[in-house]
Amino acid sequence: MSNKASLPDGKGDGRVLKHYLVGCAACPDYSYENVNRALRVAIEKTGGLPPVGKQVLLKPNLLSPREPDEAVTSHPAIVRETASLLKEKFPASSLLVADNPGYIFTDRKESLFRATGMWEIKKEGLAEVSLLSRDGYKSLRLPKPLALERVCVSSIWLLADSVINIAKLKTHVETEITASIKNVFGTADRDTRMAAHSAKGKAHLYRSIIDLFLVRPPEFNILDAVWCMEGNGPSRGMPRFAGWILASRNALALDAVAAFMIGYEKPFSVPFLAEAAKSGLGPGGMEEIEVRGAKLEELRIPSFKKATSVIGNIPDRLRGFCHRLLFLYPELIPKKCIGCGVCEKVCPVQAITIKRIPEIDRSKCVKCLCCHEMCPEGAMAVKENLLLGMLRKIS
Ligand code: SF4
Ligand code: SF4
After folding, report:
1. Which atom, in ligand 1's list, is nearest to the CA of 352?
2. For 184-217, how does the pLDDT look when each residue is reduced to its tens digit (9 = 90+)?
3. Please, which pLDDT band fits residue 11 given cuts at 50, 70 and 90?
4. Which of 65, 144, 150, 191 would bridge 112 by S-S if both were Cys, CB 3.0 to 4.6 A apart?
5. 276, 251, 74: which is closest to 167 by C-alpha?
6. Going along 112-214, which residue ranges are E strands?
7. Which residues pair with 55 in a beta bridge?
8. Structural domains for the chain
9. Quick one: which H or E segment has residue 241?
10. Is the pLDDT at 297 greater than 60, yes or no?
11. How far is the CA of 156 from the centre of ligand 1 (A)?
């Protein structure tokens, strides 16, 4: 399945440059009118929506039952207006909005859809709304795995005729950025996600996400960057206004532009995006991306706060290596903890035991920060290791 915007053209250094389009439109708020107008413009700049099949899946980011203004999840206005545009253009298609939240929220379907505003879309009759786990998972052996030889992926995801990926722009303490590519992580079952967060390190996580993405790349990608998240995302950062909606047929092109927006002068220096480029997901550099609807520099969000795991003054070529030496780890804030046990359930290596409060076995902890991400009370803080703290002080 090709997401290329146009045919390759040649370049003097022997590399074949390809051409990927990213459409942008300013959007001042989440009023239906403004979102609809901005979506139309951004999509039009990419050459329009590709034709879709009968069963169309809209895949927002519904990480946890949080309100839209917390900027954790894709805003319901973007999902709603995307559904409206699809209905208008392809009236014969049936639409389903679906995602899987973090593991422990899968049995809280009602509160998830209510808090994130998805029930309203269902009530209006614009689309069905469901969990991606509804029809079970299919186990697949990957012919050329980067990290995971076997994955279990949502049947809904695999069987949809067309997928429209509706991601949220956020920082991420592990992958630095979460946008279109990372949004496919929710298509996998709990065991696959646990295996991705194993003790094998960050590169293993990046490759696992890419393995999942390549199982079934979405046909089209929309990025909610009206309000995004800065600081220690993807669930405990701070909302930050950016005022843009982006669209592209290619997820990596879109994410590279998004990385530029949040302060990466060289988006392909983000190890996760570099790995995606190496795996052939899309462009190999910014010279292969054409941004339409705005100048790239106009998209930059001033003084954006990256995740604290990111050290800006490390040379690009050392970034991947330094991730092994500079890291964050979880630390309990006892007075905030209600002893709910969520952190124990989500820990992929069983490093947490709930006694009166959680105890972390540091010898087992792989510093994936899932406990931090999923704690409903914000009681699992992230701490910098000594070297990271020292570097931050002098940077
Ligand atoms: S740290 Fe958070 S997730 Fe863990 S028991 Fe306490 S409140 Fe629950
Ligand atoms: S204790 Fe937290 S950071 Fe450590 S492995 Fe478990 S979930 Fe990941």
Report:
1. 4
2. 999 999 899 989 987 677 889 999 999 999 999 9
3. very low
4. 65
5. 74
6. 128-131, 137-141, 150-154, 162-172, 176-178
7. 94
8. 11-299 (3.40.50.11440), 325-394 (3.30.70.20)
9. strand 238-248
10. yes
11. 32
